[in-house]
Write a structure and sequence with these properties.
- Its EC number is 4.2.99.18.
- It comes from Microbacterium amylolyticum.
- Belongs to the FPG family.
- Keywords: DNA damage, DNA repair, DNA-binding, Glycosidase, Hydrolase, Lyase, Metal-binding, Multifunctional enzyme, Zinc, Zinc-finger.
- This protein has about 325 residues and is of the alpha+beta class.
- It contains eight helices and twelve strands.
- It is globular.
Amino acid sequence: MPEGHSVHRIARQFERNFVGRAISVSSPQGRFADGAALIDGSTMTRAMAVGKQMFLEFEGDRWLRVHLGLYGAWDFSGDILIDPTIASANGRMGQTNQRGTDPIYDDAGENSLTSIGAPRKTRVHVRMSEQTKGLSDDGSEWPPPVVGQVRARMMTDTTCADLRGPTACAVETPEQIDAVLARLGPDPLVGDEAEGEARFVASAHRRSVAIGQLLMDQSVVSGIGNVYRAEMLFRAGTNPHTPGKNVPTDVLRRMWRDWSHLLRIGVDTGQMMTMDGLTGEAWRSAMASRDDRHWVYHRAGLPCRVCGTEIVLEEMQARKLYWCPTCQT
């Protein structure tokens, strides 16, 4: 499932390419036909992400709420205005960073390193989801052919966005959106960050539930998934089974600030980079390989990078949890 950084990146892509424009909306699959008819031809006025959900506002007090879930993805094609903090020039979701200019492709096909440059228009086809892969598009056909089960297609004169496989795709009223937002925990990139920190600490301290479960609870804090959960707990030196009410306040505050730090890195680079202080070849290796950018995630049975203890893999609420029983006592 996409974690918070991916959804923020998608929202920013909509901000650059769709907001302020009249949008043609359809449902080639048919499952979203009624909703598409409500916003077809309307101007998109806002795009925002909160945690794992994205909200697109249209004139007429209508919002499109999208939750990608486990299988959802957006495909963008056409003349896409690439933001250097969102995607690389070849259209793949990747990092734009001054550390170098040579592209590096990781094992998921992402170009995760390119030079900083001004936004530019380029003919590309981009898939934006947690497992991001670039797809070729020679621009020979417009609008692009519908491929597979497209729940919703959104188009301007020059740009197309196709949504496949979401958990939620619904047109809602401002009141309905407010109700959804009220149920979501704080997101460091939305609203006042200090207020978000206070909400997170207070919510965690009210619960006897394990902190490893609370970090995945979207009503406690928004956007954290399996990877960030494992890495944040390791970085905080915290046993994932510790009840939230027993986690010291200063540790909870550090967790929130660490989430803010890691989330911004994820939005800027497109990678869930959770190891600090990497430079040169170590940085390039980490950008090229997911296995080199995490402390404990996906390292079951391997020695801890700090103490050498074997990393433990267990299940917590039917999700895989990786942690070090020595460093996280």
